[in-house]
Amino acid sequence: MTAAAPVTLSARNLIRRFGKRGAVNGVSLELHRGEVLGLLGHNGAGKSTTLQMLTGVLLPHAGTIEICGFDLARQPDQAKACIGYLPETPPLYRDMCVDGYLEFAARLRRVPAGRVAEALQQVKQRCGLQDVGRKLISTLSKGYQQRVGIAQAIIHHPEVIVLDEPTVGLDPAQLRDIRALIRELGDAHSVILSTHLLAEVESICDRVEIMQNGSLIYGDSSARMLQYGNGRMQLEEVFLDITGKHAARHDHAHHNGEAQP
Amino acid sequence: MIRLLALRELRSLLAAPSTWLMLGALQFVFSWFFLARLDAFLQVQTQLALIANAPGAAQTIVAPLFSTLALIMMMLVPVLTMRLLAEERRNQTLPLLLSAPLSSRQIVLGKFIGLMLFLLLPIAASTGMVLVLALGTPLDTGLLLSNATGLLLLTASYAALGLYVSALAVQPIVAAIGALATLFGLWLVEASASVGSFWHALAPSGHFQSFNTGLLDSNDCLYYLLFCIVFLLLAMRRLHNNRIYG
């Protein structure tokens, strides 16, 4: 990735609460073309909520999101046309066949009618779905369903691809294929994915942001994150070290705050 | 976009075996009533011939048939509307629609139109069955058409209400029970209130009566139109709130 690559997604100061509990507090992100960004964090850190806001599924309480220069709140149609999104649970209509579903997804994302067949052929080849085109989605295994989920997110060649835990439930061979696919997608598009698999970060992400308690606490290129602690630590240790330190600071500040009148 | 969503909805309805079972059962019940009414008409036909200005075949067969059908629709429509949004929510397919370049209006209208296209099937089939009478006797097609129009409008109002309840619920079965309870409540209110009172005018079923007697009243048409618009707007609003409250 070069510094001159255009910004495809930028989010500033996103805030989201559920009731009184803050889920995301002031997250700012920037994504360039040709970049794969990994969003790391413990369970409940606010990763999925952040991704939902980036794709317009959830409205932020404050903050702005711009996708390919379109403001998501003001020009939602243009902005959303540039996104492909795979939620935590793949959004599959189980009573449809794979071809029918992907065709529907393509039309939904405004692929012109004449180009749907071509896009379908291409995406099936990319995700290894050639043999299951006529099958009902409900009869597919979890790994294939996940692949169909990824296929619907990339069928319209979006500028920004948002993947929420894309490799959950895949066997090692599929894992390798999907990682290679994401790496390949990262060359022409920008990809943002959430995960708690650190090996994934190492193998496919250009950049890492670590999230805890709804804020970003660490962001760097994945190569530099590996060198954290003079390269003596494993990635797991680095991650636990960073999140642990932050939690300790957080607790400390909290206690001090309570002690004052 | 609305057409795309409507056709998907229609296709998924037609792909389910239970839909065909339901259509078949409805048609069976309807034809049973139809033959019973026809039989009764044939028995009293000779006496009717003696009366001046006697009610014809359409009046004695069609009108009661369609009011029965209106009652059956009240129970059938909630079963069909329950899936519309509640199932998307339960299967977590709603993010697909919410993250696509679609407005809440397009989603709600797509679903509504898809279901109405499907509901045209039983209405058209029933009307066609009654039209068979025209082979043997002069038929009051005006009365038949006004009944069919009324039934279509009535069904549309039920579908709009059911769609809104489905937008509120997470479980389809809750949506079905909720919509059925609301419709049944409205029907009871209508049945117990005196004709012409506010409560009588409140329920959709009351406004079907003029269509049933062959009267195309613009007031009633307007009522159905408003009823549909109100509940579709509420459903759009609920879908928008989905993005706010999660």
Q: So, the CATH homologous superfamily of the largest domain in chain A?
A: P-loop containing nucleotide triphosphate hydrolases
Question: In terms of structural class, how would the helical and strand content of chain A be classed?
Answer: alpha/beta
Order of helices and strands of chain A: EEEHEEHEHHHEHEHEEHH
Helix content class of chain B: over 70%
Going by helix content, strand content and strand pairing, the class of chain B is mainly alpha
Proportion of residues in extended strands of chain B: under 5%
Shape of chain B: elongated
- What composes the largest sheet of chain A? 6 strands, mixed
Total discrete domains of chain B: 1
Task: List the uncertain runs of chain B.
Answer: none
**Largest protein interface, residues of each chain:** A-B, 31 and 23 residues
Alpha plus pi helix count of chain B: 11
Order of helices and strands of chain B: HHHHHHHHHHH
Using only C-alpha atoms, the radius of gyration of chain A works out to: 19 Å
Can you put this structure into words, describing what you see?
The complex is a heterodimer of chains A (261) and B (246). By secondary structure, chain A is of the alpha/beta class. Chain A folds into two domains: 1-82 and 160-237, P-loop containing nucleotide triphosphate hydrolases (Rossmann fold), CATH 3.40.50.300; 92-157, no CATH class. Chain A is 40% helix and 25% strand. Chain A contains nine helices and ten strands. In chain A, the strands form two sheets. In chain A, strands 6-7-8-3-9-10 form a six-stranded mixed beta sheet, with helices on both faces. A four-stranded antiparallel beta sheet of chain A has the order 2-1-4-5. The longest helix of chain A is centred in the last third of the chain and has 25 residues, at 235-259. Chain A is globular and about 60 Å long. Mean pLDDT of chain A is 86; it is low at 257-261. In chain B, helix 2 crosses helix 6, helix 4 (83-90) runs antiparallel to helix 8 and helix 6 runs antiparallel to helix 7 (141-168). Chain B is elongated. The mean pLDDT of chain B is 91. Chain B contains eleven helices and no strands. Chain B is mainly alpha-helical and 246 residues long. Chain B has one domain. The interface between A and B is medium-sized, with 31 and 23 residues.
